[in-house]
Amino acid sequence: MRLDGFAPRTTLLDWLRLEARSTGTKEGCAEGDCGACAVVVVRERGGRLSYEPVNSCITLIGQLDGAELITVEDLAEDGVLHPVQQAMAKEHGSQCGFCTPGIVMSLFAHYQACGGATNRATINDVLAGNLCRCTGYRPIVDAALQVCNGAAADRFTRSAAARMQALRMLDDKADVFVGDANSFFAAPASEDSLAELYAQHPDATIVAGATDVGLWITKKLTPLEKIIHVGRVAELSRSEETGDGFALGATVSLNRAALLLGSIDPDVSEVLRRFGSVQVRASGTVGGSIANGSPIGDLAPMLIALGADVELRHGRQTRRLKLEDFFIDYGKQDRKRGEFVRRLHVPKLPAGAHFRAYKITKRFDEDISALLAAFRFDLDGARIAAARVAFGGMAGIPKRAKAVEEKLRGLSLADTRGWRAAADAVREDFTPLTDLRASAAYRSGVAGNLVIKALAELAGVDAAATRVAERRSFAHAAE
Ligand SMILES: Cc1cc2nc3c(=O)[nH]c(=O)nc-3n(C[C@H](O)[C@H](O)[C@H](O)COP(=O)(O)OP(=O)(O)OC[C@H]3O[C@@H](n4cnc5c(N)ncnc54)[C@H](O)[C@@H]3O)c2cc1C
Ligand code: FES
Ligand code: FES
């Protein structure tokens, strides 16, 4: 299908329901939380078809350029329900049915992606972004276990080669520009085109995954007129492993980043597993997560503790700075008008270095952090030679805890009085706020306790004793 004209801020959900009259896809929260609007977007990645569930309420129609869109209406074949739909019906996975199209689409994406083998924990992750208020998840998970354990066999697998060919033909590597100089949706195909366009229109809004920007549209009703989507810029979507770390292009999705960064330490993996939902991580990007300057984002504190750099570009000029220096103050980053985030450079842990990260939320899955603590310790035997400690949720920006770091330097792991002094130093570093997620007293108390928890784990207390549900307790034995 070809669309030549649309308002730049049109969401995929509005287009589906109001223009295409494809009303099987539902609107619940309109902010990416409930998954009622989930659809599947198919793209070629690494020579294979990648089936990605996304929340259509916070996806802009223009983001779909060059991709295949599958909605719940597309699943049945000649009036026969898709295997995922059949399993849901057989296991009584639906009652009022409002959540069902979204759940079916999330499971359809998993059915295609899981290679015929899945388990309950994986399905729970897959469904973390799909809210069902009346059926209960047991029959839904049973349906998923039944249908996803076994090779995918449907009309999408049969037509995969032809659809791949069609996607390749759509990939014309040309810049997209819909609208005029005052109001447009643009999707440059190269970094040079992006740099030029953004320098010409520094007042434009960059959109990567739109998991933040989408909410400005649906919740704040922000009248965005000029949108530059960076998702088609080939150079920004690349990631590579360098000798001592990873270079991640700004538009690498959080799901893709998790595969690489998770290899640094199981805690990175665990925090990213709890970052939003599969849908949010499929759309949301590492660049967006840094550029938004969020004081409660999960990625920035972990990357600061690891010692990452951010690379920026303005016109032809590029520059690289320590990530902690990018965040200046609440809502203020070291980024000029017309400058964009190009790449993140994340070092691996050298020998003798250890990492810990803890995400504190009211609800375990799909919840924004009240605070996030991240630690890198460089050990010299049983003594801490150096430490990098960063917190989210404790200040107006993601920030290093320099006083805590100072107390940790040279500390013997056996010195439990020293642990307490390091924990108390949190109060020198931060004066947190009270908001709907946590009180200031709670934040300070928990932050100090997390310092102690990290030290206890480092000193050899098994994670099975320090953690209730996170999965490091299983990975820990291998350390
Ligand atoms: C339901 C839900 C759950 C969420 N859960 C979490 C969570 O658990 N943890 C968490 O940290 N966050 C969470 N978020 C927030 C959000 O997903 C992340 O901040 C995400 O990483 C933003 O990335 P994006 O690509 O979608 O950014 P976008 O929405 O596209 O952009 C965000 C901001 O960054 C700017 N921007 C994007 N890319 C660039 C670039 N390359 N250069 C310059 N500027 C750029 C945009 O102009 C905008 O100001 C959640 C959001 C939703 C909707
Ligand atoms: S309507 Fe709730 S996630 Fe889109
Ligand atoms: S079946 Fe009613 S909300 Fe899920």
Report what the structure shows:
It is a single chain. The protein has 479 residues and is of the alpha+beta class. It has 21 helices and 18 strands. It has helices at 12-19, 83-90, 100-113, 120-126, 137-148, 155-158, 160-170, 191-200, 213-218, 254-261, 266-273, 278-283, 286-291, 299-306, 323-326, 402-408, 416-424, 426-429, 440-458, 463-466, 472-475; strands at residues 38-45, 48-55, 68-70, 176-180, 183-187, 205-207, 226-229, 239-242, 245-249, 309-314, 317-322, 327-329, 332-333, 340-347, 353-360, 371-380, 383-392, 399-400. The chain is globular, with a radius of gyration of 23 Å. The N and C termini lie far apart (51 Å).
Number of strands: 18
Radius of gyration equals 23 Å
Shape: globular
The strand line-up of the biggest sheet is: 8-9-14-10-11
Name the bound molecules: flavin-adenine dinucleotide, FE2/S2 (inorganic) cluster
- SS content category: alpha+beta
Percent range of helical residues: 25-40%
Q: Spans with pLDDT under 50 lasting ≥5 residues?
A: 473-479
Strand content: 15-25%
Give the terminus-to-terminus CA distance: 51 Å
Q: Tally the helices: what do you get?
A: 21
Mean of residue pLDDT?
Answer: 95
How would a textbook summarize the main sheet?
5 strands, antiparallel
Q: How do the helices and strands line up, and which of them pair or pack?
A:
Layout: H1 12-19, E1 38-45, E2 48-55, E3 68-70, H2 83-90, H3 100-113, H4 120-126, H5 137-148, H6 155-158, H7 160-170, E4 176-180, E5 183-187, H8 191-200, E6 205-207, H9 213-218, E7 226-229, E8 239-242, E9 245-249, H10 254-261, H11 266-273, H12 278-283, H13 286-291, H14 299-306, E10 309-314, E11 317-322, H15 323-326, E12 327-329, E13 332-333, E14 340-347, E15 353-360, E16 371-380, E17 383-392, E18 399-400, H16 402-408, H17 416-424, H18 426-429, H19 440-458, H20 463-466, H21 472-475
Parallel strand pairs: 5-7, 6-7
Antiparallel strand pairs: 1-2, 1-3, 4-5, 8-9, 9-14, 10-11, 10-14, 12-13, 15-16, 16-17, 17-18
Helix pairs in contact: 2-5, 3-5, 10-11, 16-17, 17-19
One FE2/S2 (inorganic) cluster binds at residues 27-30, 32-37, 55, 57.
